[in-house]
Amino acid sequence: MDIEILLLLIRRHESSPSPKDLALYSIALNSLCRDPRQFYGLDLISNINHQETLIDLEFAVSSLAVCTSGTHVRKRQIRRLLDITEQNKQTSVDHRNRNLHHYLVYPTKKLGKLQKENGSFGDLKSSAFAIQALQSTDPGARHWNKTSAINYVKMQQNDDGSFGDDDIVYTTIMVLLALGPQGLVSIKDINCQNEKTKNWSSNPLTLYSSSMPNKMTDNLNYNNNNNNNNVNKTQNLQLETKVTNLTNLNKIEINPDDIVTVSYTLWVGSNVTEIYNINITTENNDTFYNVMQMAAQKDNHFSFQSTEWPNGHYVHTLAGYKEEPMSYHYWLLYKLPMPPDLTLPPPNQFVAPVGVDELLYLLTQVDVTFMY
Prior knowledge:
alpha+beta; Glycosyltransferase; 4-stranded mixed sheet; globular
């Protein structure tokens, strides 16, 4: 495999390697406790990031490779993944399965409903991916027929033992992963004890946005009875990084005047059952976190709790509502060029820090497959 990868990279002037091929090789290296960022002095992950593909399927695989390598995933890439999974048009089963691997919160029932009468989930490769996904999230097979799916895959074996009619090696690998005890989602759980083999940080591999912190130090609670010198701190908590609550903003630069007014709105619920708005006047170039503190001191509805990390704050509770990862409820922060419209919820490209004027927090149920 090393020779194949090196030949692929050496011949890049003749034929540039596709992000999909590089991603699959990177995942394979990662599963062998090899660092794809240090492959004979070459950085495969950097190559993947520099060749962002327009094909949704390949983009999802590339993002999986970046994530499992422990490399920082850009916020723009996360937004694109969210936009892909929330498209109204029907997308392939392959594509949705790969997004499961990124977020591990895939709505299993919806995937199970895609199973056909013959046990498949479309073609052979799609079925292999679906089996891996469902074995990870629904091992008890409550929402799918596992026996039927396995039998379908086994019946597709060729006389020579391989699987598939085209791209035989790739299809066979995916089928073996589906039939074996561990699939792609197990890569992140591999315990690489030999530092000579896998030379990178021992921190857990997580997918996070560029505004998300990398280490938590304490938990902060703010309401109108607290000020900056009266902060309750609980040390040494542990919090799994999620692609949510993008609260660590850069400096707000609304206009060049010395004094600015920030319009700050809270929406609660996917159907928006509660709305709160407040205007905060502050100095230009102030942080939005400071704006949140001032709003909390003026109005109880804007009281919040956050976790402090070395490079910012992770807001997990607002207006008494705490995020609920198990039911996919998260706070999302948007920066909008105009006041938010209830009839037209903002798209993901306005998730902070994009935009300039209006700031909206929305507590919503995130469905990583379809429009929520």
